[in-house]
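[#protein-structures] MJ: dropping CHCH domain-containing protein here for a structure pass
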Amino acid sequence: MSAGGAFGGNRGARPVPPEKGVFPLDHMHQCDLEKKDYIGCLKSSGHQSENCRIFSKKYLECRMAK
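AK: finished. structure tokens for CHCH domain-containing protein:
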């Protein structure tokens, strides 16, 4: 067997986290309106996220764009 392990990974190397994370936080508050709409929908629907998918989609689109 090779020194890299059964699946080719290097068992001695430690994983390195991404610099800013996979989905960084909105520190600049660029998507606050979309976030408030989503949170308001969750509160009014008894935290049933299925009912608020359109707001979730709008928030995620805003985050990806900015």
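MJ: nice. The first helix runs from residue 32 to 44.
AK: one more thing. The helical segments are 32-44, 53-65.
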